[in-house]
Amino acid sequence: MCEACGARFTTFERVQLREITVVKRDGKRVPFDRERLAKSITIALRKRPVDREQIDQMVSGIVRKLESAGETEVSSNDVGEFAMEALRMVDPVGYVRFASVYKDFRDPNDFAHFIEKTSLDLDEEGDEE
């Protein structure tokens, strides 16, 4: 409790199996930041019918995958692919939005090619069942 204003605070703790370092495309190494991942996913899902709890569940699932891999270093590419996989299952618009930043789309044709490829992938998955 803040003695100056009387406001009360609650903290939440999470089990962290190991420290994870993200290796960026340029080779730079930075500590994995759960909040940064959550922010990126939240931005992709802005004004979409996905609530905060679903986003937290996606982020927790991605963190579990990273921690259970047993590695202390993970590429930023792996983090991005896990995020895209989670978004693809939850919201197709958020998935495309995230992909547009992650894959650095430069013009409208990049969107069209990605959506066309994604549609084909979805059709193939549906045929397998």
UniProtKB/TrEMBL annotation:
Family membership noted in the UniProt record: Belongs to the NrdR family.
HAMAP family noted in UniProt: NrdR (MF_00440)
Keywords: ATP-binding, DNA-binding, Metal-binding, Nucleotide-binding, Repressor, Transcription, Transcription regulation, Zinc, Zinc-finger
Protein's GO biological process: negative regulation of DNA-templated transcription
Gene Ontology MF, one: DNA binding
Protein purpose: Negatively regulates transcription of bacterial ribonucleotide reductase nrd genes and operons by binding to NrdR-boxes.
Protein name from the UniProt record: Transcriptional repressor NrdR
Keyword hit for Endoplasmic reticulum: no
Source organism superkingdom: Bacteria
UniProt keyword Transcription present: yes
Ranges where the ATP-cone domain occurs: 20-110
